[in-house]
Automatic annotation (TrEMBL):
The chain crosses the membrane at residues 77-99, 111-130, 161-178, 190-212, 232-254, 318-348, 368-395. It holds the Pfam family Sulfate_transp. It is a multi-pass membrane protein. InterPro entries: SLC26A/SulP_dom (IPR011547), SLC26A/SulP_fam (IPR001902). Keywords: Membrane, Transmembrane, Transmembrane helix. This is SulP family inorganic anion transporter. It is found in: Membrane. Residues 6-373 form the SLC26A/SulP transporter domain.
Amino acid sequence: MKFPQLRQDFAASLVVFLVALPLCVGVAVASGVPAELGLVTGIVGGLVTGLLPGSSLQVSGPAAGLTVLVFEAVQEYGLPVLGVIVLATGLIQVAMGALKLGRYFRAISVAVVEGMLAGIGLVLIAGQLYSVAGAQAPASGLGKLAGLPGLIADSAGSTEALASFGLGAGTIAVLVLWKHLPKKVRTVPGALAAVALATLVTLAFSLPVATVEVKGLLDSIQLPGFETVGELASLGVLGTVVAFVLIASAESLFSAAAVDRLHDGPRTEYDKELMAQGAGNTVCGLLGALPMTAVIVRSAANVQAGARTKASRVMHGVWLLLFAALLPAVLAYIPLPALAGILVHAGWKLIPLRGIVSLWREHRGEALILIVTAVSIVAISMFEGVLIGLALAVAKTAWEASHLKLEVIDKGAGPVQAYLSGNATFLRLPKILDNLEALPQDRPVELDLSGLHHLDHACRTALENWAERHSATGTEPVKVTTP
């Protein structure tokens, strides 16, 4: 056989297609854009990013992790500007990959990334619960959470809301229970089975629930015009681009590291993978589609289904294209509460509950960064929340890096001996001076700095000035042993 791995890749591509289809549609609807644009991003993830080098078994497409940010961008700037934002994101990712900056994304604090995903998960769950009940969600994260009691009260007295809620809850139940079913049954992806069952129930009982609005693949594509490119001069749009770049790149490269642990094949080349993601987002931006990231759910399904080469992810893009071209009318039968249920389940999986507990036991500072990042995203916004998390991570690292110990030995007679060890930086300068100035003024002092790993200019200057002041009182000059 000329291509011995083709059979395995073909079978894997069908599994990935069936996993990707409901997620592409669900993410698009939750993002406030036509359902077809989610399929476009999935197609580009297969046919463009799938062909490029980087990570051979990782699968890309629209991700639940960007849903909240995309929804906010569409609401604030409009759908045409989304294409420009995604285009700029892709070009920046390509440039970063070409400059070999991909590896540095691995240095981003894991607590910040997990806090970011947890915050996204909370906002996603809160927002999609309104869709489960067939209601309109408030704009802000806090508004979504605060409005949940009222949503429950209003839904209890509405037949339509109860039908919608029952359908969404049933979808979530299928997803949760699916992994406990026999292995033969689980050959069908849980998300596809849940949507298919919800669609059949809706049709069989003529339930009064909203379904996906179908516009057609070509009608949904909007090429960005010259007037929308000018929106990049806006500070808000530029901030959104930065957030897209940071989140999409970090999520893709963290996903690549996770996928590498699932198989024994070639390892990910991070800079090439970042360029591949950038190329995909550039094409998505030109087509006015959703932004793309590598998606761990699809990637894991690809590996577990026995994929051997990148052919599986390319073929999954072909199947998405054929579906979008030949069977778009099928989308109109899918009930929105079922898609909302899938995203509630996806949002829940973004929250690392077990990780937070173990992190709190072992590294409380990291756990606090995770929690503060998540809460900031819910309370303020995605971009500001991530910036707050990064600032806290940098501050924590700087504080730990400036660890300093002062040991004073005073035998009652002779010189007072002071030993400094660790890292003497400006962050600890007030503490250093307070301790040194508390030494007896009428006694000679021997200051030993040989135990310091680092002595910055501010500390060196301050220590020299203190030594001069101490010696000026008439005592012997301070003897300093330098590092």
